[in-house]
Amino acid sequence: xxxxxxxxxxxxxxxxxxxxxxxxxxxxxxxxxxxxxxxxxxxxxxxxxxxxxxxxxxxxxxxxxxxxxxxxxxxxxxxxxxxxxxxxxxxxxxxxxxxxxxxxxxxxxxxxxxxxxxxxxxxxxxxxxxxxxxxxxxxxxxxxxxxxxxxxxxxxxxxxxxxxxxxxxxxxxxxxxxxxxxxxxxxxxxxxxxxxxxxxxxxxxxxxxxxxxxxxxxxxxxxxxxxxxxxxxxxxxxxxxxxxxxxxxxxxxxxxxxxxxxxxxxxxxxxxxxxxxxxxxxxxxxxxxxxxxx
Length: 294
What we know:
With 294 residues, the chain is an alpha+beta fold. The protein has 8 helices and 10 strands. The protein has helices at residues 11-22, 83-93, 134-150, 166-173, 177-197, 213-239, 247-258, 260-268; strands spanning 25-28, 31-37, 61-65, 70-74, 101-110, 116-123, 132-133, 209-210, 278-279, 292-293. The strands form 3 sheets. It has a 6-stranded antiparallel sheet with strand order 1-2-5-6-4-3. Strands 7-10 form a two-stranded antiparallel ribbon. The two termini are 45 Å apart.
C-alpha cells in the first residue's frame, strides 16, 4: 500500500475550514477532529478556487493559505493546547498588534486519550498587507545586494577595510543601508513582542519568574554540550585526511580550536554567576520565515 499525507491535498484545508465555520466535528477511524471557531473567523472562498499552491512543511508545522485565513498544521503533537496557540492568543490579549489573530483551533481526540491541538487557522491583523515573509525578502535583497556591490568601483582597501578608514567602510556599508532599516524594524518588533510577553503577571503560564541558580546551571550545561559537539565536529573536518577546507579557513579554525580550553572555561564560569534577572516565555517558532514584511 501507499502512505498519503493529506497535507498535500488542498481539499484538507476546505474540510477543516468548513468544519470551523460550522463548528462541527469530523469523525475518524480512531477518534474525532473538532474545529473550535473563534469570533474572528470570517468564512472565505474554498481553497481549491485559489491559485496559490500550498507551501511545504516547515520545522514544527506547515501553512497553507485558504483565502484570507491561513491554516497551520502542527507536526509535533502533545496532549492539550499547542504552545503556539497559547502564544498567539496571549499576545493578542495583552495588546500586541503585530501578530496573527487565531480564528479557529483544530483539535484531534484519539479514542480513550485526551485532545491535542493539531492546527489552527489564523488571520492577519486588519492593518496588515503582507508582501513577503522575512526570509524571502532577505534572500531577494541579498541577491540584489551582491549584484549592486559587484557593479561598484570599490577602492582596494574596501576588500579588508581597517578601522578608521571611513572611505572604505562607507563603500562597503552604503549598499546595506536599505536592509539595515528593515533589520532595525525586525528588532523593534521583536523587542515589543518580548515586552508584551513580560507584561502579564496574572497568568501563571506567562507571568515572569526569577531566574534561579538551577536555571543557570542547566543553561550552562546545554551551552557546554553544544560547544563540545561543535568543536569536535570542526576538529574532525579540519584534521581529516584529504580535507577540502581552504587553507586560510583552516588557519582560522586552528586558532579557534587552540582556544578550546579558554572557551570551555568561559562558558563554565557562567554557572557561578549570581542571577538577578527574570525569565519569560519565548516564542518557540520565531524566525524570519514566520515574520511578515508589511
